[in-house]
# Entry
Amino acid sequence: MFTYDYHIHTRLSPHTDKHHSIDKIIRFQQDRGMEEIGITDHDFSYGSRTKNVDLARKTIDECESSISVRLGAESHMLEYRVPSIDIRFAAYFDYILMAPNHYHFRGVARPTRLLDPRNVAAHEIHMFEAAIACPITDVVVHPFVLSPEVFGFSTEEFSDFGSEMMEHIEQKRLINLLDMAAGRGIGIEISPKFIKYNQRHLIEFYQLCLEREVKLMIGSDAHNAEELEELGLLEPVLEVLGVAEEHLWRPRKWQW
Ligand SMILES: [Zn+2]
Ligand SMILES: [Zn+2]
# Structure
């Protein structure tokens, strides 16, 4: 199993366990044999203040762990050309995760008809394109993964709706976008959430990513310790996909 997890929330983010602090996460991940992890709270968690980012880095440094810990941020596209993070503020992080479909957050453009898979598909691909075109994006997180909180379907219905939506995505356009992502070194997240949310049809999408030489980023998107462990759900999927070390997106090491 790969020992990376580049999408982890701390208690700074909403809906997170209040004990889920940086030092606890690092200790927990170290004990279970992880090699490199990334702390990625939502950009707004820092209130646009660089001093709060410095504080997070200080906490990481003070942990003195044996694993490598990076500090990223999760941002999202509000509209086609509008990311939620200021690009100067983005430069304070090691990498930026860009979410194209944070429909549960205020100010994010939503599909006009949430119950119509064709309409949702058109919106998802449009925002996926926006995330890839955004100059500060390092990884597009959970593209085409629909959240049960937003759609409110049963697990069964959800799986059918999701696969129907993917059938309405124009393949040629998708391939062009993946080629653009590969060219720019942008990764695509693969997270245990797609399994948890019963959207196994997305395995074909991850297969296509690999065919187009797009790197996959492993991220749990955990909001508590239990979710950190759910990363293990990915193990059989990565095996089926034939994912090897060279297929994975990892943050750049800056050399000064
Ligand atoms: Zn997200
Ligand atoms: Zn997240």
